[in-house]
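pasting DUF3995 domain-containing protein for the record, 184 residues
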Amino acid sequence: MSLATAIPSSRSTTNEAHLVPPPPRHAVRAAYAAAASATIGFLPLHVIWALGIPLFADPDLFRPWYQDGGGVYLLTLNLLALLPAVLAVALIRPWGLVFPRWVPIVRGHRVPRMLLIAPGAALSGFLLAYTAFAAVLMPLQWDDPAAIFDPRTGIYGIAQFLVWIAGLAIATRSYACRTRPNAS
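structre below
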């Protein structure tokens, strides 16, 4: 296995090549942990809720919330959770460096660095802010009779989000360092 991957210039599909070192093992593990957290960690409970099942929720409060747009919100949230999983894996795979053959128009062209770095950094920051908000909100809702969802689900959610945040941040930083011009 080569120590670097040759990728064509973003300006052309000629044989101009930039050598990009492979991701370090810790970045690969972090990226897959982030992708798993976004899918295996996040989706199961949220899919159950999106199907209208009030697991770990107050059924009397859940049903009206669900019918008043909560179901659409949950479906959207589930679909959006797939994007960060793909992003995390793209940060460590060759298709995060060069657009694959099946992508029309840009196939074979170098993926612009900021196309992955900006969303990776922004999402890490957003998820961190959201997790901090949830950590503050959880104890406030602990005995609140108006809470739709059982606040104890936040304990799992916060832990799962911390894995997601750390994994995505590590993979994004690694990608940024590896793809920096003259980094090889």
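Residues 8-17 have pLDDT under 50 and may be disordered.
The radius of gyration is 20 Å.
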